[in-house]
């Protein structure tokens, strides 16, 4: 199996991550894209340069990525959202370690800070980038657009609400830019068809960068965190699957590029889970039929999302077919053995193995004998690839060691993450007490 070197569009990738997180509820109505589009146009009014526009667009496209549950995402859609800083902080924590996103992480961290007559240039002793204030304005404009009428008819009402808060919540200079922008009809017409508006996308693509497989793996790792950290149950799952899949690929004599693609595929194989509300992922007890179909749709959604990114074709096949079975009884495409390349077969085995062996908060991972029994039975029933199962059994200790090492590291990160948030909650409570809100 030979893997070709392909370059991937950074922008397309980022857009798909944000699309995935907006799929969790139809209410969100492409919120990330909408805010990115408004931000971009405000930036044009303010004559920002290409570089500034670029960072702003990526930050806007991802600004609510830290809203991990559906409820959190819906809560901040309200114009006067309560405690909006938590999802902003989570967004920052998710992104800050990735050099590709370091600037964006900072912008996102403060995207709900009020202008407060210029005092909003600092928060808790830290500098707040002006870009955060611009996204803050764009975000609030987006939340004022009602779905009941055409955006064009709402221009004056929305401007009125924004203008009222000029100086208090929003930078007056930015509100002035919005005053000019609101006069341009195309802006409102574009908002109506934002999901298919190619205008904005074309403009942005000029500044797009192409990334190679190693950068893709780095971003894939970030995606894995966004996917996994939504639930304590699955907090380290993708990290485990990716590591196991890569090792199985090596033991199957795949060339280096294919091993890398399989690793990247492992990180993103469950990206479609972003469309499943955490409320369903963590539901104790039995799922209703509707809920079950949402969960079952996740690998299909992975396929659709990755399909939008040119250059990911091969990785998509490895990632999205992880619930297909050789005898055609898997989902969602009902593919059979001859349609499933080695990378997809490896992913299926890696996914099952990781799910069986990893510790979950409510149970310990299974022991070797029981795991081997299940895998061999599935191989005998022609569900999964016999050869790959044999390779896994031959290298059981080594694969297990790798899985544990990677997952322990990921679990530690997740714990740090939880801790920081708890501290943040405590601080909010303290702040509430000193301000007499509690
Ligand atoms: Fe937000
Ligand atoms: Fe938002
Ligand atoms: Fe899955």
TrEMBL record:
Family annotation (Pfam families): HD, HD_5
SUPFAM superfamilies named in the record: HD-domain/PDEase-like
Domain HD-GYP span(s) in chain numbering: 6-194, 212-408
Stored InterPro entries: HD/PDEase_dom, HD_domain, HD_GYP_dom
PANTHER family reported in the protein's UniProt record: 3'3'-CGAMP-SPECIFIC PHOSPHODIESTERASE 1, CYCLIC DI-GMP PHOSPHODIESTERASE PA4108-RELATED
Protein name, UniProt field: HD domain-containing protein
Lineage summary: Bacteria, Bacillati, Bacillota, Clostridia, Eubacteriales
